[in-house]
Amino acid sequence: MNDGYALKVERLTVRYGDKVAVKGLSFMVNNGEVYCLLGPNGAGKTSTIKAILGLVKYEGLIDILGLGQPSPSVMNNIGVVMETPAVLEALTPREFLEFLGSVRGIFNARRAETLIDAFELKEYLDTPIAALSAGNRQKVAIVAALLHEPKLLLLDEPFNFLDVKSVRVFKEIMQRHIESGGSILFSTHIMEVAERVCNRIGILNEGILITEGTPSEIKERAKAGTLEDAFLKAIHADEEIKAILEGL
Amino acid sequence: MVNAYKLASVLYRELSYQGYTASRISGLRPMNVRRAIRAARYSKLVISVLMGFYIGLMGTVPYVLKKPSLSLIETLVVSFFMVFASSINTVFSLQNTEHIKGLLAMLPLEPRLVRRTLTLSLYMTMDLPIYVSITVSTVLSLAMGGLPYPLIGTLEGIPLGIMASMGFVLIAERTLKNPVSGSVVRALALVPIVLASMAMGYVLEVNPSGLNPALSLAPVVSGLSITGLGTPLYVTVMYIALFSALAYVMLQRASGRLFESTVQVQVIRVKAPRVFRIRNPLMALIRVDLTQSFRSRMAGLWALPIGYWLITVLTAIISGTKLNPMLMLTYTMELSLLTAFIPYALYMSELRGAVVFRLLPISPIRNLISKLTVTLIAYYIAVAPMIIIALFYKLPLSLQVPILLAFGPPIAATAVMAILFEASISEGTVSSTLVMFIYALIIMLVEGLPIASLFTTQVLIGGYVVPALVMFMVSMMEFAVALIILIRLSRH
Predict the structure, then answer these.
(1) A165 partner at 20 to 30 Å CA-CA among A196, B124, B269, B336?
(2) pLDDT at A115 over 90
(3) Contact B411, B479 (CB under 8 A)
């Protein structure tokens, strides 16, 4: 395990046919920090996370926890919540969690029960995941990501579909994860959440990292009062929005 | 005024894309979306060409054998088989497309227009293969000097194929919520394909002139008695009209259910134990493979070896056909071929949530070991009655060698399937009818080579032991090559 960083990405490029989704992206997630990837739709946030997980072909260097590039052996140290819940829909939550615990060789029944209670999934444990609501599917995906107490969490819009109570619980869990020395790469486009949760932020636009720093550094650099204003300035959308609003 | 046809054309493009990529099922998006959209469009064209080719081929064989009327049954079976297989796959790929209902609900459309649009768009996923089949069989009929048999066979087979697949959708939608009836229905889904493909061989044994005249009133068979204008022709035309009308009604009902249903077809309530059970990683993988495949549309593939065994061996015993060693050897090889479709079922059902498997410490090799274990068990369960029957009928003991070693070809096919799965999953486009057909063809080729080597050696030097060893060696060589490719692939 690397002492300095949990994740290092250097010169990452992701292509989908002719389209280049991520262009030579470099950043680092330090141990014990939440690093936020912010960006408009199509900026390359999800493609970056998929590349880190080895779900898409990429060029460049990715080092996860000092263990090297994404591979099956690295996966036991990562917890992932995808934009759309990555679950096996034909199984029940109980069967799914048992499967994950068995394949990973890591299962703490007490932790499983605590998480199931925290996300109010007990009554759905024996219902096929396919029959659950989008919110409950997302909760199953979150429990699955946290179950094996991973060092690094990769969260791509993790609050999608969640109710207010579950968002609050999850934010608290994220906080405790950081306090215990874990790290989080967090992708979102909700500025308030980013400002409150993240230690450092990288703003992506059209696959390029245009600025990076703590929330206050980014606000200061942009001479903006809020992170939202700073973000819009960084991606040069402030003037565009003005023009749009005038045209309405 | 909104035109249902124009609206359906737009919906069809979405359906064909969803059916081709199955990205909503796998959780993986195609690496090249533009290419996937293009491929989705061409996939229907290629299926049409395949269907036209098979109809042309199977319609010609009886004519060459001087039994032209039997081309009616052959073309009927081919068109039924192709329409059923292709539409059932498209339909199941669409089961997650609930957003289409949501989209239509937001538009100011009359419910009647919505129903027509949905029916039309579903029909569009299979229209070109139907037109090509009808054209080919018409040309074939004209080439036969005006004999209508291939055309009639195709005109009957197409609506029967649509009725079978849509009937399955309607039954499945109701029963799949119940674990017992759901499993039975899923297992039966592919029985029409098994029966249809087996029937093609037996049909050529029929003597059309020896048929009971009363059968000229029966569905399908009536066509065999057509010699010109007369009752059999009128009866046949009536049946075609009836089948077509029923197919339309069922298509309409199924499309409504398919898009309007809020309960997905694979939903099953399972009574689970109260405590979490953690297993050995390999056992857990095998268990999930089996659970997923039994709860998916691939469950029917499990019925193949068992269904084949029941139909062929029992037919042979009941009809008094002598169970000679060569017949047993042929049965064994056919069982070996069918067993190769078990790993195919396992890998295909793994598409559901393929992204989850990518996020777990499961290497392609470990995944392969799980599939190999299941394939081996399935082979020996399927072949065990063969061993007993061969002993019971006091067939040569040396015959047991090929029976025991014929697990080789399915093992090789499993490794090849692992390569196909790994390669295509990285592209994110896996579940289209065309891709599945191509996979099935490749598997049959991989299986066919060692089986052909067995029969060739048998003809050349006789006996059972040496041919069985040759077959086993060829299949192990295939397996070794596939394994090397898989290891190289997994390193990337």
Answers:
(1) B269
(2) yes
(3) yes
Domain range annotation of chain B: 4-260, 281-491
Please determine, for residue B308, whether its predicted confidence score (pLDDT) is greater than 70: no
The residue-averaged pLDDT of B50-56 equals: 83
Q: Which fold has domain A5-247?
A: Rossmann fold (3.40.50)
Which band of pLDDT confidence, cut at 50, 70 and 90, is reported for residue B267? very low
Q: What is the complex's ipTM, to 2 decimals?
A: 0.75
At CB < 8 Å, which residues of chain A contact B?
Answer: 16-18, 53-57, 72-73, 75-76, 78, 80, 82, 84, 86-92, 94-95, 97-105, 107, 109, 112, 125-128, 130-131
Mean pLDDT, chain B, integer: 76
Contact residues of B toward A, CB < 8 A: 27-28, 31-35, 263-264, 266-272, 275-281, 283-285, 287-288, 291-292, 295-296, 349, 352-353, 355-356, 358-363, 366, 426
The first and second tokens of residue A218, run together, are 């980014």
Say which DSSP state B244 is in. Answer: H
CA contacts within 13 A on the Cβ side of B299: 22
Amino acid at B450: P
User: B179: nearest CA in chain A?
Assistant: A128
Cβ distance of A87 and B268 shorter than 8 Å? no
pLDDT in tens, A39-92: 988 899 989 998 898 888 899 999 999 988 887 778 889 999 988 888 887 788
Q: Are B25 and B93 a contacting pair, CB within 8 Å?
A: yes
The residue assigned the tokens 């619980």 is A169
